[in-house]
Amino acid sequence: MSNQKLFNVAVVGATGAVGEQILKLLEKRDFPINQLKLLSSARSAGTKLTFKGQEVMVEEATPDSFIGVEIALFSAGGDVSKALAPIAAEQGVICIDNTNAFRMDPDTPLVVPEVNIDAINEHKGIIANPNCSTIQMVAALKPLQDRYGISRVIVSTYQAVSGAGARAIDEMLRQSKEVLAGNEVEPQILPVGSLPVKHQIAFNAIPQIDKFQDNGYTLEEMKMVRETKKIMGDESIEVTATCVRIPVVYGHSESVYVELKNDYELEDVKRLLQDAPGITLVDDPANQQYPLATEAAGKPDVFVGRLRRDLGHSRGLNMWIVSDNLMKGAAWNAVQIAEFIAIEK
Amino acid sequence: MSNQKLFNVAVVGATGAVGEQILKLLEKRDFPINQLKLLSSARSAGTKLTFKGQEVMVEEATPDSFIGVEIALFSAGGDVSKALAPIAAEQGVICIDNTNAFRMDPDTPLVVPEVNIDAINEHKGIIANPNCSTIQMVAALKPLQDRYGISRVIVSTYQAVSGAGARAIDEMLRQSKEVLAGNEVEPQILPVGSLPVKHQIAFNAIPQIDKFQDNGYTLEEMKMVRETKKIMGDESIEVTATCVRIPVVYGHSESVYVELKNDYELEDVKRLLQDAPGITLVDDPANQQYPLATEAAGKPDVFVGRLRRDLGHSRGLNMWIVSDNLMKGAAWNAVQIAEFIAIEK
Lengths: 345, 345
What we know:
The first copy, chain A, is of the alpha/beta class. Chain A contains nine helices and 13 strands. In chain A, the strands form two sheets. In chain A, strands 3-4-2-1-5-6-7 form a seven-stranded mixed sheet, sandwiched between helices. A six-stranded mixed sheet of chain A has the order 9-8-10-13-12-11. The radius of gyration of chain A is 20 Å and the shape is globular. Chains A, B: GO terms for molecular function: aspartate-semialdehyde dehydrogenase activity; NAD binding; NADP binding; protein dimerization activity.
């Protein structure tokens, strides 16, 4: 991206887990930055972070923070985005929002570059980054949708604790040590910090991510249903999800069952995925090779394997999809969107 | 079971993880034992175990071990069962086999007492105990099959390492300590001890349990397909499975999607499961109550929750099924069968 316009960029939530990854990626990708503004809550303001060898002071994010900013990446929670992104957008800032605040807003494009990059052209100042568990799934489903059509998706997730933030990682590691030492644990964060009941995550599987809705599904499960339809641009795709937290630090795994609209050859599916952007096919049962959370951690790709036909339904396909929830599931997808914006300017 | 005939009982594989649970249950249930014989491989012979306060010497299992025995519970691996169970059966011993050796043999009943106890009457000396992941699923599906009929099942499992034996538990705990200490790990057992490639299980999810078959499914996945049809007595039920090992010690969790043949009311499903033998319904989202592996560990029941209708398919139902894989998934199911045999004599 040499010989190109440089941008004034703000990162809102710069001290958080996703913000940290965004900064690393902006640096690594040599994003065309003129001026970089790091913003956070009042609590973290004053922290100094290093970007390309230079110290940058983190400032408190306020409505006045966005003067002169051209691109802002938000990952400081839904409330911060709701309060500040519309104000920034009104000032002409293009906001890329990592939270749930605007994802289902009909005026806000919900974008996974490999799936629906054209949607960014319809933005009105805010572009939403989908939920981590949705991003990796739709990235792998897109080549199948284009070639065969998709009628339904049944997904069960195996989600990492980093999706619940740094305190959830700490809790899981601390609990693991306690259990290994033969001590009792006192869960304090998971499954949902703001809810009263807590469950042990160490050496356990918790079938609750985010709050329950009136229909018995969790918000995380409903995000997968609604966001998939919106990103793939097809309200007729039926999605049902079971979202589960397991004791993994980085990397969501997903057991995805897809029913295609047309007949398929398994070898064609493998070729499609092999050639698809952002996808790495790891599918070699003879050598016990399949995607693993520990191997996806820190990498930008979506890893797909365990491809096999449903023996009872010839249009049914089982897949195992793994990706780093903080990378493609959050920071990398947001930076990809920022790069497309930069290229178009 | 007072005033009743006492039995000469042999436990083959008495020193293993499942054998240990069988002994505990025979003691706790006050099984009508005349003489108890503990058998094992030559390696473990000579070990002394305590049963009802008395020391019992473990002897090497040989073709001559079964003279005078009336009921034998096998859990010493498929090869031992293949070698010895037919010999014992010929001598009139009723063999309850926990291994995969005879499960799909047309002459061998495959029994989960809550589902198909009548099948034990057709035995020819050997009664097979199904695979752990199948047992807990069919126990929960049976009331739905009877009331609505089942057309298909799509299951993703979250399986505990104890299913792979004591050495796999040791490996998982040792690896966890290493990772927490910031050290590299050298996987040696999982996913399959006898195969060359090993993967880290600590803080990971491994989508391989047992060996891969030519069709791309693992043997564990194919067990769930075949055994479900046989136990439920309906070859038309379509089952597709993804079996995954996660870092949990005891208790398999399963995300099960069921498509029923007839319309259902969710409240009726809850009532059916609440009244079903061997099932404990834990389904109270408002209070964040659902089945958890850590809470199922050591208990005989199958725990079911997270019941909710597929929003796209009115006959589709999502369930979360959890049970201790060494209890209902192995030892308890075997002892239940032994109790039915004892009652019938």
